[in-house]
Design goal:
The protein is mainly alpha-helical. Helices cover about 70% and strands about 0% of the residues. It contains eight helices and no strands. About 30% of the residues are buried.
């Protein structure tokens, strides 16, 4: 039933922060990797994912201004420039990168990363589809024209959707960085928990 589907989507979007928190708790209570080679490789992969995801997130924030953190969708305009000229959901991509970075940091390069990766990717894809439906309903043909030439997650080689409607960024790099301070604090907090978890396993 459409109403049930819409209700489930609304619940998923409203409680997305709690769901991510639950996933983080499961990761923290999972025993960390104990093999030094896998630990080193996992840390290097995690750092790379953190850097790339942070740059993508900051660049996205430069163009969208304020983004929705509550449980109600809101959008004054359809942003199609910056990272949004190449992919429709750069923030969800960056979220996935951060989450996978945490998994590699804690679990190393091991098969334990796979189920965590599948859950995170499935969750972010579900959120992106909810957002697509909202944007299509809000902006109609404008969104459909943009979505037709802009992939959801993986940029298409050659050309962008921004075209003649190119607009300047609303913020400088550092303004966008500090505007998203809660994300950086959350990432720092999660890494600190994982470090303490490793210390508890290896030295206590």
């Amino acid at each position: 039933m459409p109403s049930a589907k819409n209700g489930l989507a609304a619940l998923l979007y409203r409680f997305r922060g709690y769901i991510l928190g639950l996933i983080a708790i499961v990761l923290v209570i999972t025993p960390p990797c104990v093999f030094s080679t896998e630990i080193r490789s996992g840390v290097f992969i995690a750092i790379a994912l953190y850097v790339v995801s942070a740059l993508l997130r900051v660049q996205s924030r430069r163009f969208i201004g304020e983004h929705t953190r509550g449980h109600v969708h809101a959008a004054d305009a359809l942003v199609t420039c910056g990272p949004y000229a190449s992919i429709r959901h750069p923030l969800y991509v960056s979220n996935t990168g951060f989450a996978l970075g945490l998994a590699f940091f804690h679990l190393g390069v091991s098969l334990w990363v796979v189920p965590f990766m599948l859950v995170v990717v499935a969750f972010e894809i579900a959120l992106s589809r909810i957002e697509d439906r909202f944007l299509e309903k809000t902006f109609g043909d404008v969104w459909r024209a943009w979505a037709a030439k802009t992939p959801a997650f993986f940029p298409r080689l050659g050309g962008t959707a921004c075209g003649s409607s190119r607009v300047p960024a609303q913020r400088t790099f550092w303004q966008a960085f500090f505007a998203d301070s809660s994300s950086w604090l959350w990432l720092l907090f999660c890494n600190l928990l994982l470090v303490l978890r490793k210390v508890a396993v290896f030295y206590v």
